[in-house]
Amino acid sequence: MPHADLAVLMQEFATLDTILGANVFQVRAYERASQTLETTPEDVEKLAKEGRIRELPGIGDGIAKKIEEFIKTGRIAALEELRKKVDPAILALIRIPGLGPKKAKMLVEELGIKSVDDLEKACREEKVRPLKGMGAKSEEKILAGIASMKVTRERVPLWEAREIAAKVVEHLRLSGGATMAVATGSVRRWKESVRDLDVATVAPDHAKLMKSAATMPGVVEVIAHGETKTSVYYGQDRFQVDVRVVPEESYGAALQYFTGSKEHSVRLREKAVKMGLTVNEYGVHKLKKNGEKGERIAGASEEEVYEALGFQWIPPELREDKGELDAFAKGKKAPRLIERADIKGDLHCHTTWSDGTASVEEMAKAAERRHYEYVAITDHSPSAGYAGGLNADKLKRQWDEIAAVQEKFHIKILRGSEVDILAEGKLDWPDKILEQMDFVVASIHQRGKDDREANTKRLVRALEHPCVKVIGHPSTRRLGLRPPLDIDWEAVYETAIKHGKALELNSSPERLDLDEIKVARASSLGIPIFIDTDAHSTGMFDNIEFGVMQARRAWLKPEQVVNTKTWKEMEKWLMAGRK
Q1: pTM of the full predicted structure?
Q2: In this structure, how many other beta carbons lie within 10 angstroms of the beta carbon of residue 517?
Q3: b/e map of 530-547 (b: 16 or more CB within 10 Å)?
Q4: What's the pLDDT tens digit per position in 304-317?
Q5: Per DSSP, which regions of 300-399 are E strands?
Q6: Minimal CA–CA distance to 414: which of 367, 448, 357?
Q7: For 213-218, which contacts have Cβ atoms below 8 Å and span 24 or more sequence positions?
Q8: What is the per-residue DSSP string for 115-131?
Q9: What are the backbone angles phi and psi of residue 298, rounded to the nearest 5°?
Q10: Measuring CA to CA, which of 28, 247, 415, 535 is 20 to 30 A from 222?
Q11: Residue ranges in the chain whose pLDDT is less than 50
């Protein structure tokens, strides 16, 4: 069970309690529990089953019982009761970036706001500024937050959709009797955001499966309920989930059909027609002269469907009508794209020296367990006080610890830093310290005004610094929460090429930064790409899968990714350009 599910629920307790005016210590207890559950490397479900959930920091008896209840039943009764006590309008407003529970409650109670649209109208009519603690700037910030939310929440971030998909699939297997169940559509293609979720299933009892889909935990409304398809709204964000059941002999055709993309499927149907065939979710059929369906020739597996149409099986993440049909035509050598097993190390991770949850040794052990040859410890620089940024004394002590830990491991542990790119592109460590580091990733954290010229200048100047090897999460976006900075990317690419620098594809599921279009553009120009996790706990190393799949969507080959190099090759690459 994903820790994030429970972390979100504990944060919801904290939010609802804040709205209802609960004791501040109670609110903080839930917030701390949320943070623990989000970052712990432990298997929470296993701890709960062993009666050891209370061993986690911040998990007292009351919260432990709620966690155990959710693991057993998929719901928490106390949370459901709290939800009933809070005006839905408040819950809608707190999704606006920068608007907290207390102000949302005030807006609902004093202005009668019922929706985000109501609030947007009130701000434009200057009705918010007279309220206590508000003003003209508050209205501007709220309007900016609403605009950001409309852009970023039109689709659900991939990580969120995949978590929902995992829970839905598990429920359909355990409670609905599904013998096969796969989340299709954008989730299966690993698109960075998802509009809705389609799940294709096979089950001996269709009625049982459909009933299970309509009554699973998390459903807030049943849209449609039939013999072969059930559609529901799931969760407070009313994410649409469609569950379909097909005969086993049609399962491969259904997977292909519902996975898409639309453009890919159109091209396949065009090819089918030229071959005298027709293809849909039930299979590939011959076409009779009168245009009716004839003999069924494929459909049990996707491989069978593609084979019938003259193609090798095409990985779902590539099905976007971007040349994949030509590349995977029968008889051609399929392209060798990057795979997770190609990654030889992670050069962006954090420890307890700054805002991570694991020690240097624990992170090194976790990296070595994944068969990595090297790992860079890149805790934050001094200006990142919000994230426990190191000062010079702490950095020296950390390096002493790295040296001591290194003696215990074969994996190479690099002394690095995620250095803040400050205003005007200045770096947050003096050169005399940067020059002693094995690896430097430079990142923007404090955004300031979103000015294209200023943003570009910051990245360009950082790339020009001889000690910087890579720019971390270059656009600073956070999926579903914060849009990317306005940047002249061609100027950034030009500078990276000139100075032989790399750009990062940050695998943190909430970032996936750079996006696939920029990754494809940068790599086509010969700019090296790092795929790192920005791990803040040992378990977060596994997020590398998100980055690898994003790189595959950009058609990256192993040689275009720097950290597919062996340690000997990487050492040579790191030394290039040093004085």
Answers
A1: 0.77
A2: 11
A3: bbbbbbbbbbbbebbebb
A4: 999 999 999 999 99
A5: 345-349, 374-377
A6: 367
A7: 213/172, 213/176, 213/241, 213/243, 216/74, 216/168, 216/171, 216/172, 216/175, 217/73, 217/74, 217/75, 217/167, 217/171, 218/74, 218/164, 218/167
A8: SHHHHHHHHHTT-STTS
A9: -165, 160
A10: 247
A11: 1-2
Whose structure tokens read 């979103």?
A: 450
pLDDT digits (tens, 9 = 90+) for 468-516: 999 999 999 988 778 899 999 999 999 999 999 999 999 999 899 999 9
List, in order, residues 6 or more apart from 33 with CB less than 8 Å away: 10, 58, 59, 63
pLDDT of residue 3: 59
Q: Which amino acid is at 257?
A: Y
Contact 40, 537 (CB under 8 A): yes
Residue count (the chain) = 579
Q: How does DSSP assign 136-159, residue by residue?
A: HHHHHHHHHHHHHHHHHSSSEEHH
Closest CA to 14 of 72, 86, 121, 118: 86
**Residue 399 phi, psi dihedral angles, 5° rounding:** -65, -35
In terms of Cβ atoms closer than 10 Å to its own Cβ (0-12, 13-18, 19+), residue 180 is middle
Specify whether the CB–CB gap between 356 and 537 falls below 8 A. Answer: yes
194 neighbors 158 (Cβ within 8 angstroms): yes
State both tokens at 413. Answer: 């542990």
Q: Report the alpha-carbon distance of residue 396 to residue 382 in Å, rounded.
A: 13
Q: Look at residue 577 in the predicted model and tell me its pLDDT.
A: 67
Q: Are the C-beta atoms of residues 82 and 13 closer than 8 Å to each other?
A: yes
The residues facing 409 across adjacent strands are: none
Helix (H, G, I), strand (E, B) or coil at 57: coil
Select from 465, 462, 466 the least CA-distant residue to 476.
Answer: 462
User: Beta 229-234 vs 219-225: how paired, if at all?
Assistant: antiparallel
C-alpha separations of 106 from 99, 128, 444 in Å? 11, 10, 34
CA distance 434 to 369: 29
As beta bridge partners, residue 286 has 277
